[in-house]
Amino acid sequence: MELLEIKGLTKVFDNKEILTNVNLKISRGKIIGLLGKNGVGKTTLIKLINDLLTPTKGEILINGNRPGIESKKVISYLPERTYLNKQMKVSEIIQYFKEFYENFDSEKAAKLLKDLNLDMNQKLSKMSKGMQEKVQLVLVMSRNADLYILDEPLGGVDPATRDYILDTILSNFNEKASLIISTHLISDIERILDEVIFIDKGKIVLQSEADKLRNKENASIDEIFRRKFKC
Amino acid sequence: MEFTFDNNIPIYIQLLEYMKIYLISGVFQCGEKLPSVRDFATTFKVNPNTMQKALAELENLSLIYTERTNGKYVTKDKKTIEKLKDEYATTLAKSYFEGMKRIGLGKADSIQYLERINEKNGIIRD
Amino acid sequence: MLTKLLKYDLKYMIKNMSVFYIFSIFFAITTRILFSVKQTVIIDIIGQISVGTMFSMLASVLINTLMRSWIRFRDSIYKDEAYLTHTLPVTKKDIYNSKFLQTLIFFIVGFVVIVLSLLIVYYTKDRWIALKTMINSITSGLNINAVLFVLSMIGIIFLEIFNAIQSGFFGIILGHKKNNNKIGYSVLFGFLEYMISQTMVLILMFIVGLFDGNIMELFKNNNILLNSNTLKLIIILTTILYLLIIYFMSVICKKELDKGVNIE
After folding, report:
1. Distance from C-alpha of B104 to C-alpha of B92, rounded to nearest angstrom
2. Where are the domains of chain C?
């Protein structure tokens, strides 16, 4: 059974077809880049996998289950926005995650927070947006999930933090889990990708192993992407 | 240590290069046990799958072998390593002389430059 | 999971409501003290201010409990916090039940605070006896137990308010299925549902009236002269009807939520 299987997924919103007939299979133990320009449907696809949107047509299966309690236990999702209750302190959020997610590793979270110089006792409302985003990343990476989904984790992040994020992703790697990074900043991350998926105007244009694609086109993924989607 | 990678070339091929140099330069000796795939991946800061691919290719070239439960080892066959070293040295030498020829230097001068620059900069000492 | 959700929902409400509870009781106490000491012009003025402040605190308790229930419902299910709520491994039913129970609990707490404050300010043995006498005069004439009567009146008011709150929940759920003007539609649907539920109580009463002449009298002649059995019947019926409506609406709300959400 595939980790993630998407069959014939279409999403219509406000009379616009945002995703059209998306078919995808993602197996375990891979780091995958979901690459596309802004506004092509990446976030919509991710929200559908996370049960934040309902499909108009088609099916999403995670470990064979439709999005629901079972899939939520094993998916760790980092949205593009800050979504935590800002009245809480970092330590309280850690406690919150620990209570709801069996596979949450609070020791790991404490270590990551320390590495990133984040104060456990600080209220989120007193932190800068960048710091809040780092807290959210720590929460996501501290779970022992089957599927990690990071939506634009590198936007507006300084190079040192970006490197730290990539290092954390790599050290988190295990053969039973997969990680999807959705981004339009391809050159920053393409080095660590196993597979790439190009999405444009709500359709999957390409799904391939990264090195195979480089070999075939004799260029970087970033370059291949630019060629394909010349403005 | 920071390893740079060119995104235009398959990553595993670049890893292969780094590994080959490690092998022929003696960082890993013949018959020596190699670090795990994960450790390598962490050192190079690459995807473990990509690292695995590079190591698989090394195995294809008989430069390393896998002992099922114990891990990966450098080949015991010195000759294979020597042969690879010879290939690299030959390529470097060729490229040196072709370069000198292109800028118009003769045979004697080219060889002299080799000795002189090495002495002056202390690159390879005895 | 329900208890965990409820714990955090309650924590949120406590954080936001405790100020009003504390101030209500505080000003109730100060008012009582001011009313009890020797009255001078200054003390009288301060006392008026104090009691006025207390009443505004009580109003705040009421309004805040109401508004915050709706706003919290909307925010955690449809706004940014929804990204957290809907990715937790909990059912939509549990999410709804948690909000439902949280609202119920805080309404009870608010009610207790209000009654307590009023008691603190106004209780004297004489007044209490006078109140009891008045109630007894009504209930003995009608041959009903006074305590039960008072409790059932409070109960019905409670159910009415709670029905209104749930209408708000219903409105928010339906309103957010629309693409635009979500708040507008939420208010509209909530209001409609409230009116419909009120009408249903009347209609069902009317139907019972077809079988019970006394109740029909009430409809025909607006006749307030009730005998005790009719009154008991009305009280019991109203209570049951409201309970049924609240139950069925919560089932419908949960079903609608289960169909899925579409978070911006």
Report:
1. 18
2. 11-123, 124-264
Contact flag C86-A50 (C-beta cutoff 8 Å): yes
- Interface residues of A toward B, Cβ cutoff 8 Å, are 29-31, 166-167, 170-171, 173, 187, 190-194, 210-212, 214-215, 218-223
More confidently predicted of C250 and C201: C250
Q: Read off the amino acid at residue A84.
A: L
Q: What is the mean pLDDT of residues C236-259?
A: 93
Chains sharing 3 or more CB pairs under 8 A with chain C:
A
What pLDDT does C61 receive?
Answer: 93
CB contact under 8 A, A75 and C88: no
pTM (two decimals) = 0.89
What is the identity of the amino acid at A54?
A: T
Q: List chain C residues with CB under 8 Å of A53.
A: 260-263
pLDDT digits (tens, 9 = 90+) for A149-185: 999 998 878 888 888 899 999 988 989 999 999 998 8
